[in-house]
Amino acid sequence: MSDRLRRFADVLVGYSGGVQPGDLTVVQGTVNVEPLLNELVAAVLRAGGQPSVRCEPELDGLLLGEGSDEQIEWLTPGELQDIEQADVWIVVEAPTNTKALTSVDPEREARVQRARQRIRERYLERALAGELRWVLTGYPTNGAAQDAEMSLAEYENFLYDAALLDDGDPVERWGRFAGELQRVVELLATKEELRFVAEGTDLTIAVGGDRRWVGADGHENFPDGEVFTAPLDDSAEGEISFTFPAVFSGRQVDDVRLRFREGEVVEATASRGEQFLQEMLGLDDGARRVGELAFGLNDAVRVFTRNILFDEKIGGTMHLALGSAYPECGGVNRSALHWDMICDLRSSSEVYADGELVYRNGRFLSL
Amino acid sequence: MTDPRVARLGELVVNYSLGLRPGKVLRIDAPPVAEPLAVEIYRAALAAGAHPYVDFQLERLPELLLAEASEEQLDFVSPIAKAELELVDAIVTIWSETNTRALTHADPERHQRLLASTQELAKRRWQRMSSGELGWLGVLFPTEAHAQDAQMSLPEYERFVFRACHVEEPGDAVEHWQQVREDLGARAEGLAAARELHIVGPGTDLKLGVEGRRWQAADGRYNMPDGEVYTSPLETVTEGEISFAFPALFHGREVADIRLRFEGGAVVGAEASRGREYLDALLAMDDGARRLGEVAFGLNYEIERFTQNTLFDEKIGGTMHVALGSAFQDLGGLNESGLHWDLVCDLREDGEVYVDGELVWRAGRFLEAVASAGV
Q1: Interface test with chain A among B56, B75, B87, by most A beta carbons within 10 Å
Q2: Are B56 and A26 an interchain contact pair (Cβ–Cβ within 8 Å)?
């Protein structure tokens, strides 16, 4: 366990964060991830960086329950300094109880999100200018294991497998994996239109023009493993059935089926949570369009765990997100929503690119 | 789930010690093991309309730095920490450890270097505190490690700590400490005119000069628990002998049964049954280390036991303590030293203290109550 944790920290620091001598590296997490924070501090020191720890109790429930509007909107001097001064920022997100905020008034939650926009925008600015590298990762907790319907020991194995830790030198292994993802990006970059065919799914969508595919290879999320793009906004036609539950903001919707015409959702059904689905689709104009289209390519992630950090990377799946698109892909769709929904393609499925079969039962044929 | 005593301590810290106002920024510095108290202080600060946040320091950080850091990394002072210090209105430091001896075998030179790197921030903090821009309070959260040092079980030690802070029982702790503030303030005022203290007890017959020095009441605004009145004695006047029944700790090392003999304000004879060499080394640290920087009455009668922690020991009701080394400049003290070592003298059995020849204290109590009574 502790050896794996040390290797996990070394990859996060040496590969994901790319910590160089002298880099001021903020290591952030709630108190329940203290063992990983300790390992991250040691790894940053070994890499020659300067660690700066940001650790606090899990206070969101208390703050949202007892704080005034002014208090819940307040940003601490600590986080405001971190975002300005860090060269590398490693965030460990692992709640002890993933449902602790279920009964919080969504209006108050939205107020917090709006206040935090300032931090997100500053991050994007500094990241774009090459001043800040940011990594989001997880940590095995009983809360996460419970969501995944596993024991804690099983969940630890799941997480460290997904992080490719048990396969030689993990930094070298991630370098190789990044190369594999790049080959998928290169293949897809030559295509104009994709057609997904599976049970309950026949969806055509355009990915050419000014849009770019990007390989997610463990630098902003860890673990990682997908290639994603922003499809052309008016192009989605047909229907898609999502095999995994669609989870957003802690709410779960089962058996989502969407029908698209000229890029827009024209029909949406679900066996459970359909009303929530309709509410989200009605959030704004952009919420009915596809902001992201992606292939999950991490074969070490095999099972659904209700944590999008892992689920969207399951090898042999595709996902699309309703709502906002990524500018780095050339996407323009704007929305307050970005809801990833995942479709398992590992059996009885095919993907055609410009009419040619390129992917069957979870695998690209030519790679 | 919440221990009501911890909740009461959180409210006491916020509403009495810090007197936190709406809109003020409070940083709560603590190790993770002190989470229950950190959360209760946070909750009380929210209720007071302030902006609190918790800054947990990883307890293993010093150990990790000592093991892994280069000299450059040891010397580093984070620009984040510097900037943050300018942006807070108050800091609570919660002292709490899971192992009070974890650094016993650390390389002394590297440890010294690490401590030196914290001086810049500590200095700036004192500057902001003494100019009144920054409020500060130190408080302890009980753990097994502290209980072990005190030779108690954790439940016993918790009762000991919470009683010392007057939050063991329900009731208005703020009111209690306001009374303490009044009483100790009056006591300090009463001592202001004193010229000479004469302390007599088992193995003790010591005269100190305090003329012209200011007495200060320690009434829970900077430490919790609290309860003493203290000053810095004249540097060249102390004459006679003093014996310390409680073992004295300095940086985790113990010296037992210390006896000191003073002439012209300086230690001229020192004995101990254990740790004599360490005692000699400390006395030889610099010129000021042989002279007294502090003399004080311990007046918290809800602390009755010695627990090897100065925060509590020096406040035991019925004791006096003197400190070898640096004096308090704001009280008129002049002695300078790298040392400030509090030594506690138990006067509860048959001690006597005379002020300018008049008996004022016997067996651990002032004979005359202050106007408001209580201590």
Answers
A1: B56
A2: no
Query: Would you list the DSSP string of B125-180?
Result: HHHHHHTTS-EEEEEE---HHHHHHTTS-HHHHHHHHHHHTT-SSSS-HHHHHHHH
Q: Which contiguous run of DSSP H or E holds residue A184?
A: helix A170-189
What is the predicted pLDDT for the residue at B109?
87
Least CA distance to A24: which residue of chain B? Answer: B78
Q: Tell me how far apart the alpha carbons of residues A185 and A367 are, in angstroms, rounded to a whole number.
A: 11
Question: Is the per-residue pLDDT at A126 higher than 90?
Answer: yes
Q: Is A322 left (phi over 0), alpha (psi -120 to 50) or beta?
A: beta
For CA atoms B3, B5, B8, B13, give the dihedral sign: negative
pLDDT tens-digit series, residues B88-122: 999 999 999 999 888 888 888 898 899 889 889 99
ipTM score for this prediction: 0.88
Query: pLDDT tens for residues A167-191?
Result: 788 889 999 999 999 999 999 999 9
Task: Flag if B46 and A56 touch (Cβ within 8 Å).
Answer: no
In this complex, do A66 and B43 lie within 8 Å of one another by their Cβ atoms?
A: yes
pLDDT computed for residue B371 by the predictor: 56
Residue B227's DSSP bridge partners are none
Q: Which of B73, B96, B114, B117 to mutate to test the interface with A (most CBs of A within 10 A)?
A: B73
Residue in chain B closest to A72 (alpha carbons) equals B51
Minimal Cα distance from B43: which residue of A? Answer: A62
- For CA atoms B226, B231, B233, B239, the dihedral sign is negative
**Cβ separation of B78 and A76 shorter than 8 Å?**
no
Q: Which residues of chain A from 12 to 51 reach within 8 Å of chain B, CB to CB? A: 24, 26, 31, 34, 37-38, 41-42, 45-46, 48, 50
Contact state of A50 with B73 under an 8 Å Cβ cutoff: yes
Name the pTM for this structure. 0.90
The superfamily (CATH) of domain B4-171 is Thermophilic metalloprotease (M29) (3.40.1830.10)
Ramachandran angles phi, psi of B372, nearest 5°: -90, -5
CB atoms B53 and A46 under 8 Å? no
Cα–Cα distances in angstroms (integers) from residue A180 to residues A14, A170, A353, B237, in the given order: 20, 15, 19, 82
**Nearest of B70, B264, B182 to residue A21 by alpha carbon:** B70
What whole-number distance in Å separates Cα of residue A177 and Cα of residue A199? 30
pLDDT band at B326 (very low <50, low <70, confident <90, very high): very high
Round to whole Å and give the CA distance between B28 and B90: 9
Q: Do A77 and B84 touch (CB under 8 A)?
A: yes
Task: List the single residue in B39, B65, B87 with the smallest CB-CB distance to A62.
Answer: B39
Residue that has been written with the tokens 């029944």 in this structure: B245
Domains of chain A are 2-139 (3.40.1830.10), 171-364 (no CATH)
Q: Please give the residue of chain B at the shortest CA–CA distance from A76.
A: B53
- What is the tens place of the pLDDT at every residue in A275-295? 989 999 998 899 999 999 999
Q: Do B83 and A77 touch (CB under 8 A)?
A: yes
- Map out the domains of chain B as residue ranges: 4-171, 177-366
Positive or negative, the CA dihedral B249, B255, B256, B261 is negative
Q: Is B277 exposed, middle or buried (0-12, 13-18, 19+ CB in 10 A)?
A: exposed
Note the Cα B62 to chain centre separation in Å: 22
pLDDT band at B375 (very low <50, low <70, confident <90, very high): very low
> Do A240 and A268 form a contact (C-beta atoms < 8 A)?
no
